[in-house]
Amino acid sequence: MIASFGTLPDGRNVDRITIRAHGMSASLLTYGATLQDLRLDGTPHPLVLGFPDLTPYLTEGRYFGAIVGRYANRIAGGEYSCDGQTHRLDRNEADRTTLHGGADGTGMRKWTLADHGADHATFFDSLPDGHMGFPGAMIVRVHYRIMPGACLRIAILAAASEVTPCSFAQHSFFNLDGRADISDHRLSVAAQTYLPVDPALIPLGAPAPVEGTHLDFRSPVRLGDRLAGPLIDHNLCTGDRDRLVPEDAAWLDAGGLRMTVASTMPGLQVYAGDHIRPGAPGLQGLPYARHAGIALESQFWPDSPHHPEYPSAMLPVGHIYRQITCLNFGPQSGC
After folding, report:
1. Is residue 297 among the annotated active site residues?
2. What CATH number is given for 2-331 in this structure?
3. E.C. number, please (predicted)?
4. Which of 100, 116, 131, 171 is catalytic?
């Protein structure tokens, strides 16, 4: 089903596409290829944070549910060098870093709906050479499909005309119990290490063990026991390279539900929504406050163009970037 969702400041219309199958429904926007709403039959509340109209997505709700890129997360200094050439990028975060591909990154752009059916929808975007300072024209395709077993499968493909950094992430904030915050959620992440960061959230260098830190989620952790401590907004290292087949990276429990995140990516940005502030009403009619949801963003490691020792996010000419992330839902485990 397709319905109009609003109009951008330049007059372009944004559509919402709703797909349904296997006891699940997902509503998707042509703005940002955004997952605007996600529901399970028998569950009375949405499973993601979102808004009932377009306006908040342009301001306080930017990135909520969007596909962010062409480089998800941060690139320090808004520049990088490759083959002896320095590329200066759009510094859209405090005029010092490039965040999620710049001010006109894919999470802030209108995509084209390329195909849709009862259980799937495909979106397409085309980025010109030099867009936000990145070299190479790029085409990117995102395919959402509801699979048996209450699974939302997200496949992202991209190709470019020049060697360029390429890392996309699906940026939903999850809340499985419908409460005001995620205190009663339990999180487990299959990561032995994480990337320490400076005050600007730029990685400092080599991965460090999670053991003994507030980022140790190897065993299930009730988030309410961690939210009052240091900021949770870090890349957890779930692998040392991207994979062909998705592997379980994390699970989240609350409200009788379990969501398992499986991905082909070697990193998972865990962000507990510290900077969410009340504003426009959300999907349940009330504004979202701090810690209203948690983002679990499958990605290459942040700032990798400055760290050749990290898994490489450089996309060569003639190669295809491919990411598959699966959100699997079932009953909450008793463990």
Report:
1. yes
2. 2.70.98.10
3. 5.1.3.3
4. 171
